[in-house]
Amino acid sequence: MSMSCGGRTETDSAGLFGEAARLDRAVLATPAWWRGSVPFGAGARLLVREDGSARGAIGGGRLEAKALAAAREVLATGRPRLLEFDLTQEQAAEEGMICGGRCAVLLQPLAAREDREALAAVAEAEAGGLTVVVVSVASEQAPRLLAFLPDRGLAGRPAEAGEAEQIEEAARLCLQEGAARFLPGPPPVVLDPVLARPRLIVFGAGHIAVPLVHLAALVGFRVTVVDDRADFASRARFPAAEQVVVSEVEGAFAHMTIGEQTYIVSVTRGHALDEEVAARALRTAARYIGMIGSKRKVGVVRDRLRARGFSEEDLARLHAPIGLDIGSETVEEIAVSIVAELIAVRRGRVG
C-alpha cells in the first residue's frame, strides 16, 4: 500500500481510545484499505463525538470533511458505513487534493455499554506502552468493537467461534506486519494495530531538555527525564513527561528496562556525566543513543570510551554531535534538531 500524497498526516492518537471509553456514543473513523497515493498514513484515526466535534485526523481536506458529514448519519442510525474514495488525478484536483489513489474509510458506531470493555482494554494497553489491535466489525445488525491483545486474546462482546478464530489469526498477522488489514466479510472487518509508543529517556534536566521533552512527547514518544538535581527534575518543569526521576546515572540504569524501542539522549551538565550515560547506554539494546556536545568534546569522549574497551562498531551507534544539521543556534532549535533525528531513526531514514 502506497501512502504518499500532498497533505498526508500521521496521527498520534494517544488518549483517543481512553476518551472514547468515557463517551456514551461516538463514531470511530479508520482507514480500511488504500491503494496508491492517499492523504493519510499509518495510525490515522478520527473520533467523532455526539456534538459533531472530533479528535484525531484522517488526512484533512475534503476526504475528512465527507467522513465527518457521514459520521453524523452513523450517529443517528447506529449503522456502520464504508466510504470509498477514488482519488484519481482529475477528481483529486477538483477536490483540491494532489493524490492519485483509492481508499476506503470505515465509520464505526461506538456505544459505551456494548463497546466499553474493548475500548478500556485498548486504552489500558496504550497507557502501558503495549501494542494492541483494534477490531471493528461492521455488521449492519450488530456492529461491535473488539480488542486483540497478544497475551489475552480478544476483549469485547463475544464473537461466534469461527469468526473469533478468523479475527485472531488476522490480528496476529497485523502485529507481525505492523499494518492494518481489511477482511471484506460479510460483515466487513477492519483490523487496526495501535503500536506501542517508543520510549525516550532524557538524561539531564537543563535548559535544552525543557523544549526537547515537550516536542518529543508531542510527536509520540513516552518520555522519562533523569537528573540527580531535585530542583531541576520536577513534574512542574516537565509536565509532558511520563516520568521524572531524581537519580544518579548508575542508579537510573539499574532500575530501568531498556529494549529495542528505547531511545536515549544525553544532555547533561558535564563531559563526565555524558560519558557515563554513553558508556552504560552502549551496553544496552537501545535503538538510539545520542550525546550533545561540540566536535572537540565528542572526540574526547569517544577516545575515553575507546580506552574503556568500546569498539568502533560500538561507537558507531553513538549519534554525536546529536541532532540533524539544520543550522541550530538557539536552545529551541537544538531541541528541534534532536527530535528531527529521533523521528528519522524511528522512520528508518537515518543509517
In the residues, how many domains can be counted?
A: 2
Share in helix: 25-40%
- Termini Cα gap: 24 Å
* Helix-and-strand structural type: alpha/beta
How do the strands line up in the largest sheet? Answer: 13-12-11-14-15-16
Oligomer: single chain
Describe the structure.
The protein is an alpha/beta fold and 351 residues long. 35% of the residues lie in helices and 25% in strands. The protein folds into two domains: 16-194, no CATH class; 199-346, NAD(P)-binding Rossmann-like Domain (Rossmann fold), CATH 3.40.50.720. It is built from eleven helices and 16 strands. The strands form three sheets. A six-stranded parallel beta sheet has the order 13-12-11-14-15-16, sandwiched between helices. The chain has a five-stranded antiparallel beta sheet with strand order 3-2-1-5-4, sandwiched between helices. A five-stranded antiparallel beta sheet has the order 8-7-6-10-9, sandwiched between helices. A hairpin with a 6-residue loop joins strand 6 (132-137) and strand 7 (144-149). The protein starts with 15 loop residues before the first helix and ends in a 5-residue tail after the last helix.
Any descriptors?
351 residues, alpha/beta, 16 strands, single chain, six-stranded parallel β-sheet, 2 domains, Rossmann fold
Topology:
Layout: H1 16-22, E1 25-35, E2 45-49, E3 54-57, H2 61-77, E4 81-86, H3 89-95, E5 102-111, H4 112-127, E6 132-137, E7 144-149, E8 153-156, H5 161-177, E9 181-183, E10 189-194, E11 199-203, H6 209-218, E12 222-227, E13 243-246, H7 249-254, E14 262-266, H8 271-281, E15 288-291, H9 295-307, H10 312-315, E16 318-319, H11 331-346
Parallel strand pairs: 11-12, 11-14, 12-13, 14-15, 15-16
Antiparallel strand pairs: 1-2, 1-5, 2-3, 4-5, 6-7, 6-10, 7-8, 9-10
